[in-house]
Amino acid sequence: MPVGPAGAQFAACYSGTTGAFSPSLDSAKEMSNDTQRTRRFLKTWAINTLAVLLAVNIVPGDKIHFLGNTYLAPILTALILGILNAFIRPILMLLALPLLIFTLGLFTLVINALLLRLVALLLPNFFYVQNFWAAFLGALIISVISVALNVLTGGTQVSVRRRPPPPPPPPRKSGPGDGPVIDV
Q: Where are the domains of the chain?
């Protein structure tokens, strides 16, 4: 594939109307999409890391904590939590769909707590969660903080629009046959 200015890769595209080949910047657009995905991933990871750090500091007692004095623990914990949320959580949500419907979505907090507990089991040298209720409280805090930070940083697609009221119906002309209809 030929390389153009500034390292952009061009793909030859055949134009049926002109009968000629012309360069296309499709791969450059794909690179920008990959860059956008990478930025979105890094932003989500940073938000989750901050949320996990705050949850560890907010949960009372020593029920959730990082093991060791390393900066790797919160980063690794948020990474594993993000991977589990991306791959395992949709499966759990599908399996628990009747419970999610019955509880109006509140069972999602139980699924989040189970995933946080699973992170603690997968990273025994870095992250500790004492029991399910500590995981539940930590998952609740992580969820609230993540939603708040995503709204503040523009990471959500939430929009509130006010629709204008519909126009009034056109006035009806009254004529000799426009009175009330009585069926007998």
A: 40-153
Give the model confidence (pLDDT) of 21-75 as tens digits: 444 444 445 557 888 888 888 888 899 999 999 999 999 888 888 887 788 899 9
In sequence order, the 6+-apart residues with CB closer than 8 A to the CB of 88 are 115, 118
| For helices 107-122 and 132-153, angle between their N-to-C axes, nearest 10 degrees | 110
pTM beyond cutoff 0.90: no
- CA angle at 93 for the pair 107 and 106, rounded to the nearest 5°: 15
Q: For residues 126 and 136, what is the distance between their CA atoms, to the nearest angstrom?
A: 19
What is the rounded CA–CA span in Å between residue 55 and residue 62? 12
Query: Which tokens hold the place of 156?
Result: 């959500």
Q: Which helix (H) or strand (E) holds 53?
A: helix 26-58
Rounded to 5 degrees, what are φ and ψ at 9? -95, 135
Non-local (6+) Cβ contacts of 93 within 8 A are 100, 108, 111
Dump the DSSP string for 114-179.
Answer: HHHHHHHHH-TTTEEE-SHHHHHHHHHHHHHHHHHHHHHHT-S------PPPPPPPPPPPP-TT-S
